[in-house]
Amino acid sequence: MDSAAHPAPPDPGEPPAPVTRRRFLGRTAVAGSVAVAAGSTPAGSGSAPSGRTAAASTPDAGAAPAPPAAPLDRQREMLLQAARAGAVYPIEFRGFGESARGRARVTAARLLAAERRLAPGRLAQARAGADALIAQGLFGAPQGRLLAGIGRHAAQAGDRARRDLRAFVALGVATLSPHFDPADDAMAEIWLGGLGREHRLGRQPQPIVRRN
Fold this sequence. Notes:
- The protein is mainly α.
- It starts with 20 loop residues before the first helix and ends in a 12-residue tail after the last helix.
- 51% of the residues lie in helices and 0% in strands.
- The protein has nine helices and no strands.
- The chain has helices spanning 21-25, 28-38, 51-56, 72-86, 108-115, 120-135, 143-156, 159-176, 186-200.
- The protein has one domain.
């Protein structure tokens, strides 16, 4: 029998594969909840560009120079800080089988595990995204100011800085749940698109309170 035509069923003992862009788009429960914050912004109206499109574009002429690199421990704490905000905004992030609540899953050990899944170039982008937020005074900022600052940066940054910011957020998503691929921008695009839209509308991002 041709094994290529009849692949063996997956081993139930094997860990789930990382969620790629295609698999992510099928997870309507997650994408739908995040899209609440993104609203109904049509394509081309200011939402974050796809990773593939952004990678093919060139940096803006006269773009501001990259901020200086912060110490590694500050870069990591900046990412953990943003991941804690993402754990509850716009709604609490699903556990995908994990019993711990969203914020409880944001740990240094989980961040290190997510970092090890990245190629060096992609990891450097994520750390550059952290540097940009630190340079804007968002290190240690309260959640409301942090979300507003990320939204402002998402709406105003040039191509290179937006790529760095998406890499930064994608690493935070993979820290919250290892089901997600830290090299995939899909969730980051939706989350940043929602925050950028709130900035353009002059609104403070507010988590959605669940009602029983």
